[in-house]
Request: fold
Amino acid sequence: MSKKIKNLNLKYSSFFLLLTFFLLFYPGDSIYVKMFTWHRDIFAAHTSTISVPLQPAPFLRNKQNFPEVTAQGAYIIDLNSATSVFARKEHQSFLPASTTKVITALTAFDYFDLDSVLTVKRIMSEGQTVDFVIGEKLTFENLLYAILVHSGNDAAYVIADNYPGGEKVFIEAMNKKAESIGMKNSHFENPAGLDRFGQHSSPFDLVLAGRSLLNNKRLANMVSIKNITITDVDFTHFHRLSNVNELLGELPGVGGLKTGYTIDAGENLITLYKSNGHEFLLVIMKSEDRFEDTRNIINWLETNIDYIQIRER
Reply:
């Protein structure tokens, strides 16, 4: 091959290399951009503003290396760039158990003021409870702590019972709320997350729910609390609440969010995790050990995720 032909090949190679980088970093709806930003359009639809340039998007250092988890369903996104980094049956229906209370909190927050006073109208003994008494009056704020920190089923029903129209109308509002934030594969039949026919959600949908909760600063602060004592408005009944999430306060970077468990649902967990300026939202469903699964995922995030800066209009 002559020296002239070699030089020509080198020029063509350089041209195509420059073209590749141009396409990769060119602002706009480049297919190369979309390779790094799966589902960004869905999450962006529920974000008020998106900065330009966008936050660095994560990518896998080793595409053959995935976290070892027992969960049958999982979905993990980098919150800043709305980019998925791991998915397993993310659109499959599972029993949500008490992760349902994320939608309960979001729905109720749209109607009640934090200082609204709600009355306990029935006693519940099924699953996790706070052990309220009939006639006890509590602020809506304290009831939010009861469902988001302690996962009290009775607290969820106090909220539903005091909603205009009662439990039935509240359930309708829950499903409308879920639909409004893009949860297309979810339906709720009760506010506590008890296993009922027709009650279901998916890992993808619970990421949408978790992200919506984190956009509410008051609720986001509540899910990060390890322990708190609440009282009724007359300071007669005091209730010590403890967060069910054993990773909160034990594993650096974990900002809590919501647990869920029944025998049929298995172990569910939505987790906010922060590391080196990056934020992740992790959802696992029907796990045999949700806390160990989450630890394994976090270790995997720390060792197998890197970032690339992408500009987009």
